[in-house]
Design brief:
single chain; alpha/beta; Spore Coat Polysaccharide Biosynthesis Protein SpsA, Chain A; UDP N-Acetylglucosamine Acyltransferase, domain 1; 2 domains; 23-stranded parallel beta sheet; seven-stranded mixed beta sheet; elongated; binds uridine-diphosphate-N-acetylglucosamine; binds calcium ion
Length: 475
């Protein structure tokens, strides 16, 4: 149990507790289940985001246990508070562990860390109903196509809101497997009756776990009301218990993202082949070709074309940018009208000015290219500043690293760097200078000068013919 949330006496409004301590055995993975990602974000982060978007004021607690440090670390930035469940002895035990955190609140909403598509409006609806009815327990149910594996909601009588019990898959009585209404794993409780009875949970079931779902029958037995409200769309309460389920939720989320972007005026050809993270922003009139990945906090302006087999992660592109096939762009930016690729690699910190051109097999790292600058072929530019309108010839390399330290290359406006130049940093080439092809430049070049740093050519007239003649005589 963490110190957070302890020792506050007066009843406060609403606590949200997200259950995220389980191992996720069915995923057969080293990584804790709630850190598996869909739409580019961990399962539990989706749940936290949904809880945070509720209109009602609430404090959010996450129950962690399996690989607790790893889960805490991944969620540090979200500002949630944590509760520790050292041994994972079931969902009911998880809530028992949260006793001290929640006892000061009037109500608690419990969410599952592995039910990531839940919408804030649905949580809000459950909570509003719970508050209005003042029932001890209100649970969210759904009718998915296939209820297998979920807990089933047994109503007091058909069509009545009141619930008799929740029966887990492995405890179903004969005939109960036909019950189509499932428990979504999302509940609201009044804290007083919950804490008065939560220790009555028993682990007499095939898993030897304390099931939170048994609270329905316990509270009913104590004369409290338990009601269920059905989610309008069963899809939003689907769980991610296996890789197959996880990938299905990922596809659903990405399809929703693509549909939203298309509704906003973005053309995505073959959207089912694209991987677009939930937080990506794209302006209208941009075209995304098949097999493109747009990841993380990527923002793309209007009128851009992103051609096939390109991966863009955490980048900002202006308007009218063309990205040709096969590019890998990471944590970088490009201004309006820039042209990139095919086969360009932006490592973090590439800043490409408007109308700049970066072509095939060019790698750029921590380098700024001014407006209209060009690096069209086979080049490495690292730790560099390149002025407006400069032209970087094919095969140019900034030698930025001496094995221990990195140094800057500064290239002024309108500089022409001939093909196959090596620029040994730190070095500065002032505005308008000209570098001869094949040069190795180790010293600064003043404005408008020509620098050539290569061995002088030697030409021996007739040498090749004489050699051929010598050889044929030997044979
Ligand atoms: C649970 C419900 C089931 C419901 C389904 C909906 C129980 C017993 N069953 O089943 O009725 O249909 O969710 O998705 O609750 N967790 C802990 N500590 C633990 C065990 C689990 O924090 O000791 C967390 C898990 O990390 C997970 C959540 O609780 O995020 C649900 O646990 P899980 O084992 O996935 O329950 P289900 O079998 O899916
Ligand atoms: Ca589950």
């Amino acid at each position: 149990m963490s110190e957070e949330g302890q020792g506050e006496a007066a009843p406060r409004g609403l606590a949200v507790v997200i259950l995220a301590a389980g191992k996720g055995t069915r995923l057969k993975s080293e990584r804790p289940k709630v850190l598996h990602a869909i739409g580019g974000k961990p399962l539990v982060a989706h749940v936290i985001a949904a809880a945070s978007r509720m209109v009602s004021p609430r404090d959010i607690y996450v129950v962690v246990g399996h690989e607790a440090e790893r889960v805490r670390g991944a969620l540090q930035a979200t500002g949630v508070r944590f509760v520790e469940q050292a041994d994972q002895r079931g969902t009911g035990h998880a809530l028992q562990c949260a006793r001290q955190a929640i006892e000061g609140y009037e109500n608690v909403v419990v969410l599952s860390g592995d039910v990531p598509l839940i919408r804030p409006e649905t949580i809000e609806r459950l909570w509003r109903l719970h508050e209005a009815e003042r029932t001890a327990m209100t649970l969210l149910s759904a009718r998915p196509q296939d209820p297998t594996g979920y807990g089933r909601v047994v109503r007091k009588a058909p069509g009545e809101p009141d619930v008799e019990a929740i029966v887990e898959q492995n405890s179903l009585a004969p005939g109960q497997e036909k019950v189509g209404e499932i428990n979504a794993g999302i509940y609201a409780f009044r804290v007083a009756p919950l804490l008065a009875h939560v220790d009555e949970l028993k682990n007499e079931n095939p898993h030897g776990e304390f099931y939170l779902t048994d609270m329905a029958a316990i509270l009913r037995g104590a004369g409290e009301r338990v009601v269920a409200v059905e989610a309008p769309d069963a899809a939003e309460v689907l769980g991610a218990n296996t890789i197959v389920e996880l990938v299905a939720l990922d596809a659903r989320l990405r399809a929703e993202t693509a549909a939203r972007l298309m509704a906003e005026g973005v053309t995505i050809f073959r959207p089912e082949s694209c991987v677009i993270d939930a937080e990506v922003e794209i302006a209208p009139d941009t075209v995304i070709e098949p097999f493109v990945q747009l990841l993380g906090a990527t923002r793309i302006g209007s009128g851009c074309t992103i051609r096939s087999f390109t991966v863009i992660e955490n980048c900002t592109l202006g308007d009218g940018v063309l990205v040709q096939p096969g590019c890998m762009l990471e944590a970088s930016s490009a201004g309006d009208g820039a042209r990139i690729g095919p086969f360009t690699h932006f490592r973090p910190g590439a800043e490409i000015g408007p109308e700049a051109h970066v072509g095939n097999f060019v790698e750029i790292k921590k380098a700024r290219l001014g407006k209209g600058a060009k690096a069209n072929h086979l080049t490495y530019l690292g730790d560099a500043e390149i002025g407006e309108g400069a032209n970087i010839g094919a095969g140019t390399i900034t030698c930025n690293y001496d094995g221990a330290n990195k140094y800057m290359t500064r290239i002024g406006k309108g500089v022409f760097v001939g093909s196959d130049a090596t620029l040994v940093a730190p070095v500065r080439i002032e505005d308008g200078a000209y570098i001869g092809a094949g040069s190795c430049i180790t010293r600064d070049v003043p404005a408008d000068a020509l620098a050539v740093g290569r061995a002088r050519q030697v030409t021996k007239a007739g040498w090749a013919a004489a050699r051929r003649a010598r050889r044929s005589k030997k044979e």
